[in-house]
Specification:
Order of helices and strands: HEHEEHE
Number of helices: 3
Largest sheet: 4 strands, antiparallel
């Protein structure tokens, strides 16, 4: 398991270390990388954050940066002032986030403005994951 600290969200990906946690080994450039992104919405910002996350997915798909599946976006059932948004998806190549296009970095900026630190951690956390199974409903 490895960790890098994430201070300002995904945009900090380019300028600062990143908090990655998970039991999966780090992907190498050229290999797909599945991530779980947890975003702690600022009070009253959950709806706007859901829209930005959806736009991020649409943009990443249009730019061919991600695989179509797995992909899931979840929102916690908590009150609007403490909601979390969780998105699980796979970058087509593990090197994509380190060299993300300006259009994606701009969306990361928007995400950063809509999240807040919570429970001593950053407002946006990214964990590298390994898919071990799925079931369709």
């Amino acid at each position: 398991m490895f960790r890098r600290s994430l201070m300002l969200g995904m945009l900090s990906f380019l300028a600062m270390p990143l908090a990655l946690s998970g039991s999966a080994p780090a992907s190498t450039a050229g290999d797909p990388e599945t991530v779980m992104v947890t975003l702690h919405a600022r009070p009253g910002a959950a709806a706007a954050l859901v829209e930005v996350v959806a736009r991020h997915w649409d943009t990443a798909r249009r730019l061919n940066l991600v695989l179509e599946s797995p992909h899931v976006t979840l929102r916690s059932d908590g009150a609007n002032d403490a909601q979390d948004i969780v998105e699980i998806f796979t970058w087509r190549d593990a090197s994509v986030p380190d060299a993300a296009p300006a259009e994606i970095r701009s969306i990361w900026n928007e995400m950063n403005r809509l999240v807040e630190p919570r429970s001593g951690g950053p407002g946006l956390q990214i964990a590298t994951m390994s898919l071990i199974g799925s079931t369709a409903r």
